[in-house]
Design a protein that fits this description.
Blueprint (H helix, E strand, L loop, with lengths): L19 H12 L10 H14 L5 H15 L12 H16 L7 H8 L16 H4 L2 H5 L12
Helix pairs in contact: 1-2, 2-4, 2-5, 3-4
């Protein structure tokens, strides 16, 4: 069984990251609020989450990512409001997805390879969450502020 098959996600190989240095730069850049805004992509969100899991195991990603993302958003001129910026349900669901993929690899696999594998799945599509949540529920103020369980089907992880 290849990584990702246990969740029923399709793997396609299109590498985004070429080295571990890129992952470290994203993780450290997020923590220091020094990552250029243009580099805070969908893939970078997953890269930062996986970087935390590997390089900062003393930190619980679900506990620290909200503050890191909020601080980063503000550092690049963004806002965290009821309609923009940090989104709790999306963040926590994405962390669950990242953790599930991360756990499917041996501990010696470089993180950049794990991120590339993750981004070769349906998780690469920013709308992957709409398989589990209705758009109305996911984009609600309540979901932005706090975890809301999916209303379409349970998460596979």
């Amino acid at each position: 069984m290849t990584p990702g098959q246990q969740t029923g996600i399709r793997l396609k190989m299109k590498p985004i990251f070429a080295s571990e240095t890129e992952i470290v730069r994203i993780g450290e850049g997020l923590m220091a609020c020094s990552l250029p805004r243009a580099e805070w992509t969908h893939a970078a969100h997953f890269a930062a989450a996986l970087w935390l899991m590997r390089y900062r195991p003393e930190l619980e990603p679900a506990a620290v990512m909200p503050g890191l993302i909020r601080a980063f958003n503000e550092s690049v001129g963004g806002v965290n409001s009821d309609s923009a910026g940090y989104h709790e349900t999306i963040t926590l669901a994405s962390l669950r997805a990242a953790r599930g993929v991360y756990a499917s690899f041996p501990s010696d696999v470089p993180v950049y390879r794990i991120v590339n594998a993750l981004m070769g799945t349906n998780f690469a599509n920013p709308n992957w969450l709409l398989e589990y949540w209705s758009r109305e529920r996911l984009m609600s103020v309540q979901a932005r502020r706090a975890w809301l369980e999916p209303d379409l089907k349970a998460l596979p992880f």
